[in-house]
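can u do me a favor
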C-alpha cells in the first residue's frame, strides 16, 4: 500500500481531490504545489495509516518506515540537505491535518531535527547563531509541550525570567548567548520532569511527533469536537512532514496569515496580519501584536507600524498574485498561511476560510456577480445554521451605551449575560437557565463547551484570528477579543477596566460588531432581512422543492414568520391559546364540570375567543395554508398546582377549594405523556372538537371575506393510533362543517388530517390515510414513542450516551434516520399508497434542523414546519437538500 504522498518543486503525488486520504492540509499543499506555487517540499502520511494504527494496537504498517525514509530523502534532495546530517541538516515541521480542520488535534511542531550538533550547522549555514538558537529553543519548548507533555508555561517562565533579568521586553530582544543559556535551562527542565534527557536523535524526534499526531486523534478534546461537529472517528488524521522555511531569520523575514476577503464583513479586500522575525503561531498567539498586511488596512486602523505592503513590497506583490490565483482556482474565499525567509515568499497553507454568516452571504452573492459562481453554487456556499447569526439582535443605536471597555469586533451580533470566568461555570449557569458571557484572558480548545453554553465571549488577549475569534465566528456567537485594557483576575473573580471593577454574576452586554463591552442589559434591535440575504434566499427559493411553514399560534409569531418567508402555518397548537388571560377560567370551568351540558356552557364562552384567534392567524396568512391542531395536552396541565393557587382559583371561580383539589387529583397521571391526551380527550369529550371546529370554520369564512383570499383550513387530530379514533373525531368535524355551512350559507372547503406521532400510526398509515387528507409527522412525540425515551427526562442520560459513543447525536435535535426515520418513510409510503395526493409534512423541532430537512427531502415530504426564527434556515436547507 502507498502510505506516503510527496509534494514540492512544482509537482505532487496528491491533489485537492484527495482530501479524504491526505486530510485538508495535505491535499491543499499538494494542490498548491501542482499549481507551481512556492511550497516547501514535504510529504503526507495518509489518514489510512491513522485508521491502521488504531486497528492494530497503535502500531504502524510494516512498510511505512521505508516509505517515510524515501520521502525524507527526496525532500533532502530537493532542498540540498539531509535529515540528521551534521553539516547540512534538513529541518522539518510535523503538522496534523484531518479532512475537516479540527481544533483539539496536535499542535504543529516546528524546527524538528535540531539538536546540540545540528543547531551549530544551521547557525553557521545561515551566518546567524541567534536565529539558530531561537529555533532550537522554540523546538525544545514545542516538542516538550505537545509530544512529551511538559507544560508550556514552565518554559515561558524561564524565558520571562531571562527577559526580566536582562531588561528585555520581547523575545526578539534576546541575544544568541542569552538564548544558549535558555536552551540549557530548557533541557535541564525536561530532564528533571521526565527523568531522561531531551531526545537528540532526529529520527526519534520525528517518530515521536508522528506518534503524537496519531495519538491526538483520540484525545477527549478531539473527541468532543468531533461529536459537536458530526465528524466520524473513522476518518482519521493525516500527518504532514514539511521542510522548514524560516520567518525568524532576522528583519527581512516574517510570517503571517491572511484571508482573501474580510471574513467578518465579506468585503473584497485582502485581510490579514503578520510579524517580522517570527515563526509559526506567534501571530495568533497574541504575544506580540501583529501588523496589518495592506496599507489600506493600516491606515484604516490608524496604526503606526508599517504594513507588509510597505515593508516587503516584492514579497507582498507576489503574495497578492497568489491570493488571486488561489481564490479563482478554488472559487472560494481562502484562508492562507505564509512565511517570508530573507525576502523569499513561501506558502504554507490554504483552505476555504471560515466566515461569519454576513460575510458568507456577501461573498456568495459577490462571486455570482464576479462570474466565479452560478446562483445554484452560491446557494450551497452558505451554511443554513449560520443564518442564525443574522437573525440575532443588534444593539439599538438609540440605546444608552455605558462603555466599560473596547476590544476587537471579532464575531458580530450582540449579547447580554452575567459574567462567568470559566467554561464549567458557563455550562452550569446555562443548565440552570441563565444567560452568561464567558470572560477569559484567552480561550483554548478546552473552552469549547463553555463557548457553546455562553451567549457571547469576551477575551482580554488575542487578535481577529485568535482562537476565541475563530471559534466564535464558527459558532455564530458574538465575540469581543483582545480588549487589552481589560484586566481579568481569575483568582479574585473580577473584571476591571478604567478604574471600574465588575464581579462574577454582574450583567454586561458585548457588541461583537463594534468591539464594545457595555454595562448592563442594553436594548437590542431585530436584524434586517434585505440586501444579500434577500438575494440569496431568492435563489434558494428558486431551487427548493419543499415548502416551508412555521409553527405559530400567536399573531406576533405568525407575522415574524411571514417576514422570514414562511409559506403557511404547519402547526398551530391551540392549547397555548387556552392559557391566555381570562380564558383559563373558562377552560378550568369546562374541566371541572361533571356534565356534558356544563362543559358545553364553558366551551361556549371560549368559542368567540378561539374564533378571534383564528381570524387573526388566517388574516396574517392571507390564504396560505394553516394547520390547526385540536386540543392535545392532558387536562391536568390547565389546573392550578400549589395549595395557594388552588385556593385563589377556587375563590375566583366560586367553587369549593376541596372540590378543585379532588378534581386535580383525579386528573393526575403517572405518565401524562402517554395518558389521557390528544384524540383520546376528544373521544371522551367530543364537544371540545366541535367547539374548536366551529371556531375554525366561522373564522375561515370571516377571514376569507375580509381578505378576499379563500381560507382552506387544515384541521389536525393529534395522537391518533387507530383509524377509528380519527373517524370518530372526523365525524364530529364534518357534522360541524355542515352545520356552519347551513347557518351561514357559505361554501366551506377544509381538510382533516392527523399528526403521525405514534409508531402504530406510521405502521397503519395506509388505513388511516383513508380518513386523512394530510399527515404531519410529529417527530418530537414520534421520537419519544419510538425510543421510549421521555424528552423531559432524557437530559440525565442522553449526555452519557453521547459521551460513550452510543448515540452520535441527540435524536430530539437531529432526526434519527435509522429508526424514527424509517417509521416516517413507512408512514409516507403507506399513506401515499392509499391516497396518492395525500399532503405530507413534518412539524417537530426537526423541521428546522438542516440534517433532518435533508432527510425530509429524501422521503419526498411536501413541506417542513419550524419555529419562526428557523424559517430562513429551513428555506436554505431545503434548497440545498434539493440540489
Ligand atoms: P494549524 O493547523 O494550527 O494552523 P499548521 O500546521 O498550519 O497548524 O502550522 C501552524 C504554523 O506553523 C503555520 O502557519 C506556519 O506559520 C508554521 N509552519 C508550519 N510548517 C512550517 C514550515 N514547514 N516552515 C515554516 N513554518 C511552518
Ligand atoms: Mg494550531
Ligand atoms: Mg495552519
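np, heres the sequence
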Amino acid at each position: 500500500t502507498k502510505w506516503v504522498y510527496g509534494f514540492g518543486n512544482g509537482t505532487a503525488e496528491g491533489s485537492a481531490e484527495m482530501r479524504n486520504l491526505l486530510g485538508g492540509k495535505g491535499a491543499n499543499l499538494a494542490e498548491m504545489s501542482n499549481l507551481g506555487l512556492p511550497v516547501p517540499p514535504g510529504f503526507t502520511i495518509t489518514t489510512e495509516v491513522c485508521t491502521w494504527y488504531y486497528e492494530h494496537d497503535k502500531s504502524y504498517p510494516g512498510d511505512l518506515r521505508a516509505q517515510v525514509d524515501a520521502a525524507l530523502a527526496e525532500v533532502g534532495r530537493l532542498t540540498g540537505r539531509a535529515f540528521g546530517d551534521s553539516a547540512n541538516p534538513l529541518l522539518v515541521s510535523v503538522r496534523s491535518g484531518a479532512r475537516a480542520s479540527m481544533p483539539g488535534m496536535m499542535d504543529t511542531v516546528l524546527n524538528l531535527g535540531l539538536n546540540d550538533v545540528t543547531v551549530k550547522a544551521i547557525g553557521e549555514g545561515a551566518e546567524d547563531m541567534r536565529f539558530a538558537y531561537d529555533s532550537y529553543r522554540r523546538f525544545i519548548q514545542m516538542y516538550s509541550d505537545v509530544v512529551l507533555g511538559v507544560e508550556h508555561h514552565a518554559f515561558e517562565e524561564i524565558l520571562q525570567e531571562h527577559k526580566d533579568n536582562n531588561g528585555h521586553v520581547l523575545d526578539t530582544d534576546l541575544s544568541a548567548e542569552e538564548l544558549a543559556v535558555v536552551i540549557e535551562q530548557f533541557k535541564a527542565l525536561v530532564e528533571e520532569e521526565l527523568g531522561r534527557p531531551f531526545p537528540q536523535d532526529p529520527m526519534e524526534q520525528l517518530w515521536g511527533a508522528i506518534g503524537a499526531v496519531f495519538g491526538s486523534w483520540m484525545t477527549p478534546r478531539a473527541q468532543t469536537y468531533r461529536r459537536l461537529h458530526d465528524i466520524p472517528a473513522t476518518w482519521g488524521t493525516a500527518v504532514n512532514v514539511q521542510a522548514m522555511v524560516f520567518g525568524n531569520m532576522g528583519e527581512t523575514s516574517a510570517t503571517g496569515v491572511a484571508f482573501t476577503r474580510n471574513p467578518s464583513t465579506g468585503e473584497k479586500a485582502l485581510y490579514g496580519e503578520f510579524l517580522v522575525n517570527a515563526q509559526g503561531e506567534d501571530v495568533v498567539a497574541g504575544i506580540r501584536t501583529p501588523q496589518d498586511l495592506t496599507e489600506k488596512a493600516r491606515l484604516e486602523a490608524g496604526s503606526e507600524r508599517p504594513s507588509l505592503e510597505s515593508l516587503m513590497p516584492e514579497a507582498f506583490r507576489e503574495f497578492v498574485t497568489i491570493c488571486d490565483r488561489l481564490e479563482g482556482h478554488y472559487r472560494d474565499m481562502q484562508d492562507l498561511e505564509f512565511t517570508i525567509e530573507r525576502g523569499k515568499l513561501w506558502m504554507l497553507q490554504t483552505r476555504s476560510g471560515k466566515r461569519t454568516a454576513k460575510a458568507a452571504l456577501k461573498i456568495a452573492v459577490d462571486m455570482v456577480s464576479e462570474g466565479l459562481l452560478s446562483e445554484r453554487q452560491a446557494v450551497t456556499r452558505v451554511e443554513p445554521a449560520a443564518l442564525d447569526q443574522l437573525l440575532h439582535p443588534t444593539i439599538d443605536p438609540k440605546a444608552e451605551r455605558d462603555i466599560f471597555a473596547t476590544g476587537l469586533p471579532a464575531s458580530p451580533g450582540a449579547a447580554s449575560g452575567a459574567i462567568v470566568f470559566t467554561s464549567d461555570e458557563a455550562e452550569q449557569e446555562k443548565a440552570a437557565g441563565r444567560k452568561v458571557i464567558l470572560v477569559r484572558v484567552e480561550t483554548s480548545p478546552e473552552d469549547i463547551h463553555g463557548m457553546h453554553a455562553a451567549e457571547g465571549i469576551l477575551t482580554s488577549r488575542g487578535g481577529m484570528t485568535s482562537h476565541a475569534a475563530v471559534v466564535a465566528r464558527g459558532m455564530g456567537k458574538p465575540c469581543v477579543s483582545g480588549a487589552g485594557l481589560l484586566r481579568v483576575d481569575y483568582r479574585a473573580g473580577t473584571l476591571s477596566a478604567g478604574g471600574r471593577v465588575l464581579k462574577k454574576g454582574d450583567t454586561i452586554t458585548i457588541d461583537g460588531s463594534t468591539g464594545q463591552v457595555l454595562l448592563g442589559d442594553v436594548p437590542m434591535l431585530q436584524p434586517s432581512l434585505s440586501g444579500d440575504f434577500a438575494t440569496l434566499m431568492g435563489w434558494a427559493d428558486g431551487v427548493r422543492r419543499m415548502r416551508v411553514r412555521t409553527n405559530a399560534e400567536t399573531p406576533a409569531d405568525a407575522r415574524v414568520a411571514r417576514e422570514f418567508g414562511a409559506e403557511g402555518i404547519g402547526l398551530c397548537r391551540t392549547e397555548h391559546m387556552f392559557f391566555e388571560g381570562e380564558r383559563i377560567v373558562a377552560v378550568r370551568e369546562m374541566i371541572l364540570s361533571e356534565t356534558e351540558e356544563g362543559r358545553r356552557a364553558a366551551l361556549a364562552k371560549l368559542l368567540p375567543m378561539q374564533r378571534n384567534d383564528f381570524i387573526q392567524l388566517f388574516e396574517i396568512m392571507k390564504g396560505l395554508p394553516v394547520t390547526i391542531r385540536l386540543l392535545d395536552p392532558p387536562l391536568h396541565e390547565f389546573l392550578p398546582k400549589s395549595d395557594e393557587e388552588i385556593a385563589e382559583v377556587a375563590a375566583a371561580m366560586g367553587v369549593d377549594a376541596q372540590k378543585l383539589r379532588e378534581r386535580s387529583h383525579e386528573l393526575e397521571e403517572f405518565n401524562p405523556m402517554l395518558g389521557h391526551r390528544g384524540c383520546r380527550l376528544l373521544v371522551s369529550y367530543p364537544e371540545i372538537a366541535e367547539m374548536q371546529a366551529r371556531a375554525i370554520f366561522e373564522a375561515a369564512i370571516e377571514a376569507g371575506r375580509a381578505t378576499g383570499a379563500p381560507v382552506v383550513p387544515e384541521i389536525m387530530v393529534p395522537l391518533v393510533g387507530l383509524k377509528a379514533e380519527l373517524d370518530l373525531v372526523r365525524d364530529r368535524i364534518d357534522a360541524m362543517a355542515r352545520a356552519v355551512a347551513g347557518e351561514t350559507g357559505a361554501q366551506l372547503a377544509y381538510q382533516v388530517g392527523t399528526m403521525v406521532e405514534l409508531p402504530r400510526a406510521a405502521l397503519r398509515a395506509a388505513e388511516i390515510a383513508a380518513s386523512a387528507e394530510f399527515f404531519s409527522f410529529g417527530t418530537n412525540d414520534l421520537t419519544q414513542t419510538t425510543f421510549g425515551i421521555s424528552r423531559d427526562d432524557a437530559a440525565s442520560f442522553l449526555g452519557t450516551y453521547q459521551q460513550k459513543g452510543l448515540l452520535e447525536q441527540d435524536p430530539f435535535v437531529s432526526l434519527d434516520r435509522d429508526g424514527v426515520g424509517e417509521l416516517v418513510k413507512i408512514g409516507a409510503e403507506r399513506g401515499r399508497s392509499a391516497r396518492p395526493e395525500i399532503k405530507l409534512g413534518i412539524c417537530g423541532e426537526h423541521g428546522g434542523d438542516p440534517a433532518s430537512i435533508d432527510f425530509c427531502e429524501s422521503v419526498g415530504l411536501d413541506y417542513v414546519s419550524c419555529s419562526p426564527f428557523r424559517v430562513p434556515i429551513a428555506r436554505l436547507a431545503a434548497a440545498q437538500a434539493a440540489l
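Residues 596-621 form the longest helix (26 residues). hope that helps!!
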